[in-house]
Predict the structure.
Amino acid sequence: MSHRDRLRWALAAVVGAAAFAVVALVSTRTGAGVSVDATVRGWVLNGLPAALRQGLDHVARPLVIVVLAPVVVVLALLALVRRSWRRAVAGLVVPAGSTIVALEVRVRDVFGTGGDAFPSNHAAAGIGLLVGVWVVWPRPVTRRGLVALTVAAVVVALGNVSWYAHQPRDVLGSLLLVGTVTAATFAVLGGDVANLADDLADDLADDLDGDLDGDVSRSAGRDDGAPG
């Protein structure tokens, strides 16, 4: 991972943290935010059959965590044996760190929301473990693998809302939290931590380089146009 890519991951972590805070405040302290949250919750509760909603809850809350936690630990140990220590560390740090931060934010009521459900620690653990699987998987993750992980993350998100455990804002906050912890971890560790197939890694590098070049060009344009 290049220095430029690490900078971009660091920027993604900053943006993710800011978005996390915005979601916490807007969804609880503005009429529009509360309304959108209630509308999405209504879609889930009224649009899905009760049996499916309860099944999603069972999958997302106990099952995913119980099944994936030992899988991630074993794969992380295998990564260490293969001398991929960065991926091993990231695979453990992302789910553990996300869950710990989620619990701390809830217990301390950091944003003064007056509740104890934002963000969802179950969603943070489940989605964090999916990221852990991605990072410590023995082979680079392909596009199909990312699609499968994304579908699983959607199941976790729905399952934490479908049986009255959380509001959608709690799950969205968890998603942003996991994304922030993931980006920060990638920025700090660097190396092969992203564990992406070559085509995906190249596409990501091109996107990151293009964004950075665009930022530099815009900055240079502003400097050139500034009065002397």
